[in-house]
Amino acid sequence: MLECAECGGPYAISGKDRYSCTNRKKRLPIEALDGACCSNSKTITRHELEERVLNCIPVAFYSMEIFDRISQRMITHEVNLLKQSPSQRDELTAALKATTQRQNSIIQQISDRAAEGRPRLAALDDQLDELKATREKLAAELNALAGAWEYLR
């Protein structure tokens, strides 16, 4: 969330409890600087950064009532997002089914070629590998969606 004022790059820990521009540290050419490297040598201690952030937060935020209200709003927001998920779940399920069908079709083509004594085609093997990766990705997305639902129950 910290950003360099010169190049727009990220600030990160660059030593014991100090933040600095990572682009400067890596000496990366920056397109926004016409290929020059960032020269921002300003750093800030973790303590100073935390102090500045906390001073920006109103004291009222620290009350449990405010915290509970904000927490409830965030939960409501997340639940509303998940309520939109059934269509996403349906889309993922349909995509997974179509991928599985395509995968089975290619497996059948490979089997047919073998039964006919014809050699295997590398292109079919490559397609099968791609479909397997796609299927695993879709299944992981469905599991993550289901896990999010379980978390909120």
Note down, in words, how this protein is organized.
By secondary structure, the protein is mainly α. It contains five helices and three strands. A three-stranded antiparallel beta sheet has the order 1-2-3. It is flat, with a radius of gyration of 26 Å. The mean pLDDT is 82.
Report how far the terminal alpha carbons are from each other.
31 Å
Which structural class matches the secondary elements? mainly alpha
Strand percentage lies at 5-15%
Taking pLDDT < 50 over at least 5 consecutive residues as the criterion, the unreliable ranges are none
Look at the structure and give the mean pLDDT.
Answer: 82
List how many beta strands DSSP finds.
Answer: 3
Work out the helix count.
5
Describe the largest sheet: 3 strands, antiparallel
| Order of H and E elements | EEHEHHHH
Radius of gyration: 26 Å
For the largest beta sheet, what order do the strands appear in spatially?
A: 1-2-3
Helix content: 55-70%
Dominant shape = flat
